[in-house]
Amino acid sequence: MTSSPEYGETWVYESLVGTVPGLNVSARMAVGIQFVGFEAAILVIAAVYDLQAAVLPGTVAVVVATIGSWLMVQFSRSVRELPTPEPYRRLLFGSSIDVVLGVFAFVTLVTYLFVADPGWSEQPLVTDLFGADPPVVAIWLALLVLWDVVYRIGTCWWASLVGLWRALVYEFDPEVTRRYRRADMINVGFAVVQLLLVPFVIGYPLLLAILSGHVVAVVTVTALSRRLQ
């Protein structure tokens, strides 16, 4: 059974792309625009303000967010092609908990970067990337890219939790179970991709622990749901 996306049963990312007036592009095109737009902005701002140290981490963050967008679409399509119970579908796509988790994580990250880290580190991450007097436009873009990454991390975590709930509540025939497991592995794949950010937080133990712990948690929860199915 294939379910067409309906309002209230899509990721926020999908809803935004699908509801912008006059915008009718494929998922592949939307992801391409996302990457090219962010990367061009990073290169221009780095050139104007001589922030070459921020180019590589910024590019990797954009790559992670872009892959996340693509895998979010692939995951949602895989789920909608299955005989999905309505409560599961609405909880996964329509609850907006993914946004809540993303906002919570983003606020925590901003607090760390601008309040906690300057007090703990000899060379705070923001200073390391943007200098002692960072340009406002560079910080604005950095926060926008970080939100893009963090929102998708929140979505990844929510998908794994709802997948565990699905495994506890519902039973499917072996073929459907196999296809659900395949969809869950798309989500795990995105969690693993987030490890590309590890080299840039090696000197920041708290960020490193949170990022690594998040990936381990997603893998663990998904493994548990696979075992229960």
TrEMBL record:
<keyword id="KW-0472">Membrane</keyword>
<protein>
    <submittedName>
        <fullName>Uncharacterized protein</fullName>
    </submittedName>
</protein>
<dbReference type="Pfam" id="PF24374">
    <property type="entry name" value="DUF7530"/>
</dbReference>
<feature type="transmembrane region" description="Helical">
    <location>
        <begin position="185"/>
        <end position="202"/>
    </location>
</feature>
<feature type="transmembrane region" description="Helical">
    <location>
        <begin position="55"/>
        <end position="73"/>
    </location>
</feature>
<keyword id="KW-0812">Transmembrane</keyword>
<keyword id="KW-1133">Transmembrane helix</keyword>
<feature type="transmembrane region" description="Helical">
    <location>
        <begin position="136"/>
        <end position="164"/>
    </location>
</feature>
<dbReference type="InterPro" id="IPR055952">
    <property type="entry name" value="DUF7530"/>
</dbReference>
<feature type="transmembrane region" description="Helical">
    <location>
        <begin position="93"/>
        <end position="116"/>
    </location>
</feature>
<feature type="transmembrane region" description="Helical">
    <location>
        <begin position="29"/>
        <end position="49"/>
    </location>
</feature>
